[in-house]
Each structure stands twice: as C-alpha cells, then as structure tokens.
Specification:
With 429 residues, this protein is α/β, with parallel strands linked by helices. It folds into two domains: 250 residues, Aspartate Aminotransferase, domain 2 (3-Layer(aba) Sandwich); 125 residues, Aspartate Aminotransferase, domain 1, CATH 3.90.1150.10. Helix 4 runs parallel beside helix 11, helix 7 runs parallel beside helix 8 and helix 12 runs parallel beside helix 15. The longest helix is centred in the C-terminal third of the chain and has 23 residues. It is globular.
Length: 429
C-alpha cells in the first residue's frame, strides 16, 4: 500500500477514481494528453522540495547546483527542439508566459490585436474578462464566414487603421495551420511586434508537421502539455535574440539590454517568484522524449486521427468550421443537429466520451451554452488508438447526438467504451 493510502485514504481513493476515469473513458478534449510515467515520476520527485528563485548560476538561495543542472538541460533541449536561440522554461502556465511577454513588449494601455475568442482565440489574447483585456486595449480579427479561416484582408485593414503595438497569432480552437509569414508581413507594415501563441500545436511544430513560427515571430509562447505531452506549464522562446528597442540599459555597464534579459526579469520577479523545479525537470524529460524519432511518428498519427474523425463527421452531415482540419483539432458547429454544445457535452460525458462545448464563429449562443463542440486527437493517439477506432468513436458520438438523453443508448455505448479502453491501457500496471 502507498504512503498516501496510509496517511490520507480519502484522497487516495479520489486519486484512484481519477485513474479509473482516465483509463475507462474516451478523452477528446483537445488541450489534454497523457504524460509518460517518466514525466510523472519527475513531477512527483524530490525536486518539489527545492526553492530556487532566480536563474541557473544566479539564484537567491543556496543548494541549487543540482536543480541548475535540470533547468539548463530543459533549456538546452528546448532550444534544440524548436531551433530557438533563447528560451525560458520557468512560466507556471501558458497564461503566465503570455503575461510576461506583454510586460516586456508593452506598457499598460497599449493596443494589442488577437483572434476573437468566439472565433478560436484565447482569453489571454485581449478578452475583457482577462488581465490582457483589462491592462491593455484590444481589438480582434476574425475568421471568414465563407472559409472559416483567418480573414487576412480584415487583419490587414484593422492593423492599418488601429496600428497595434503587438499582434498575436494562434488560438485555442483554430483547426488550420497558423500562417506566420502572412502575419509577419502585416506586422511589418504597421511596425508591430509579432507574438505566436502555439500552446495547441507546439508538439506538431516541434516535430515539423506544422510550420514553425521561429523565422517570423519576435517571440513565441506555449504550454508544455497538450500536443507536446509534457507536464502542465509554460515556456517562452525567441528564434533570435535582439537588443531591446526601448533603450533599456544595464545599470552598471550602460550597455543596451537584450530582449531575453527583459523577458527573464518579467517572468521572475515580474509575475512569479520561485520556479517549480520538479515541473521544470519534468519539462526536460518531455523535451527529451520529443527529440526522439518516435515523437514525429506520434504527431503524424495525431493529425491522421484528427483528419479521419473530420472525414467521418462530414459523411454524417456535420458542419465543420473551416471544412476540416490540418492539426489535432476538429471544431464542429451543431446548429443543424438541433442540440447545443452544452447538451452534447453532457450526454456524451454520461457515455464516457469527454470533450468540451465550444463557441463557433458567429455563434448566437452564450459561452455557457454554445453552438459547437471541440474534438481533439492527442490523448487517444497517445493510447495507441488509430483510424479504425476514430471512426467507431465518431459513430458513437453521432448516435448519442442524434438521440440525445436516451438512457439505453448511453448505457450501451458506455459499456462498449469500457471494453475498448481496456484494450488500450494508458499505463502498464
């Protein structure tokens, strides 16, 4: 019996229930994945005990020699993985990574431009309910009603009219490749900085199955879970470091500081204190896994599985935003199915299929109801499920959506899912 079982049986029971839930259900939430046991071993290891404010070689506490090794390894592996000259592996989340970038490149009240939340953007790209929309002014670009893809004519027109200081490309529910070069051209035309938030496709970018932002963007942020399949956390990267254009000097030498130095200071002490060394070390584990040839095969399968689901949904007369996918995400507009995203999420969850309700472009329903659902393939691909399983899952989804709330159908499919999942264990026990 584990130490936790002895010391806190109630919480041990909760842990066991979550393990059983994950093993016996279909995980289609696009932002979720299953880490390796090696990553979890590091997250749960002794480095959680070490406080290490500062950066390797420049800590505010003693006894940091070993954790310095871990953080340096994480940085070196991340640089190699993305072809980046500068990285910071300390952000606790993607949102904090974005906050640190904003603090570096902007002043409060400056104007930012990002993809509208309802069109696939993220809260931290200027939403009024988030710090990004409260501390900074924001305007939003959209996808085309006709194509479901970013409307670059609108992006250009808005940029020329409003001249934002920072343009953000990327989002949380955009199923197509991010066209970094087009964004770069527009940013150049208004002398704006360009930031890429690749939290969702970062694993695809790392393996080369999605275009890289490094040649085009001034700064890149990401989470380390999702398609990258690491522990939950954030990162900041630059393809090329450069002298800061705001004239900020080092106080003693008088030299112009590099942007990397300003970002480091924005992370710590700007928005964070002590870094989570157990998580940083686990990030290093995940980056090492992503550098292996097998990771490329994995990301190729992610896309294959997502495309297979998209094709099956189209056969069943589902409306897909942008008509399909280039990535791990399929965004489905349910308006022709007479069911809301909230209802679909509820009934599918009862059957053991977990996904999330999601607004779709030009949605008329609230974010708590929505007209759509978002489907993702990373977690199931990690389990080793392939195209045939994806087709079966789509058929189950369609059956439940077509006859919502039918308890007999839900119960029958729930049993089928348990049987399927038993064939594809997440972890070998």
């Amino acid at each position: 019996m584990s130490n936790l079982a002895n010391s806190d049986p109630e919480l041990f029971g909760i842990l066991q229930k979550e393990a059983e839930r994950e093993e016996s259900t279909i995980e289609l939430i696009a932002s979720e994945n299953f880490t390796s046991q090696a990553v979890m071993e590091m997250v749960g290891g002794v480095m959680t005990n070490k406080y290490a404010e500062g950066y390797p070689g420049k800590r505010y506490y003693g006894g940091c020699d070993v954790v310095d090794e871990a953080e340096n390894m994480a940085r070196d592996r991340l640089k190699k993985l993305f072809g980046a000259e500068y990285v910071n592996v300390q952000p606790h989340s993607g949102s904090q990574a974005n906050m640190a970038v904003f603090m570096t490149f902007l002043k409060p009240g400056d104007l930012i431009m990002g993809l509208d939340l309802a069109h696939g953007g993220h809260l931290t790209h200027g939403s009024v309910v988030n710090f990004s929309g409260q501390l900074y002014k924001s305007i939003f670009y959209h996808v085309s009603k006709k194509t479901g893809r970013v409307d670059f004519d609108e992006v250009k027109a808005l940029a020329l009219e409003h001249r934002p200081k920072l343009i953000i490309c990327g989002g949380s529910a955009y199923p197509r490749h991010i066209e970094f070069q087009k964004f770069r051209e527009i940013a150049n035309s208004v002398d704006a900085f360009l930031m890429a938030d690749i939290a969702h496709p970062s694993g695809l970018v790392a393996s080369g199955v999605h275009p890289s932002p490094m040649p085009y963007c001034d700064v890149v942020t990401s989470t380390t879970h999702k398609t990258l399949r690491g522990p939950r956390g954030g990162i900041i990267m630059m393809g090329k470091d450069f002298e800061n254009p705001w004239g900020k000097k080092a106080p003693k030498s008088g030299r112009t500081k590099m942007v990397s130095e300003l970002i480091d200071a924005s992370v710590m002490p700007g928005v964070q204190g002590g870094p989570l060394m157990h998580v940083i070390a686990a990030k290093a584990v995940a980056f090492g896994e992503a550098l292996k040839p097998s990771f490329r095969t994995y990301t190729e399968e992610i896309i294959k599985n997502a495309k297979t689901m998209a094709e099956e949904f189209l056969k069943l007369n589902y409306k897909l935003v942008s008509g399909g996918t280039d990535t791990h995400v399929v965004l489905i507009d349910l308006t022709n199915k007479n069911i809301t995203g909230r209802e679909a999420e509820k009934y599918l969850g009862q059957a053991g299929i977990h996904l999330n309700k999601n607004m779709v472009p030009f949605d008329t329903k609230s974010p708590f109801v929505t007209s759509g659902i978002r489907v993702g393939s990373p977690a199931l691909t990690t389990r080793g499920m392939g195209a045939d399983v994806m087709r079966e899952i789509v058929r189950w989804i369609d059956t439940i959506i077509t006859k919502p709330g039918n308890e007999h159908i839900i119960k029958s499919i729930r049993q089928d899912i348990r049987t399927l999942c038993a064939k594809y264990p997440i972890y070998k026990h």
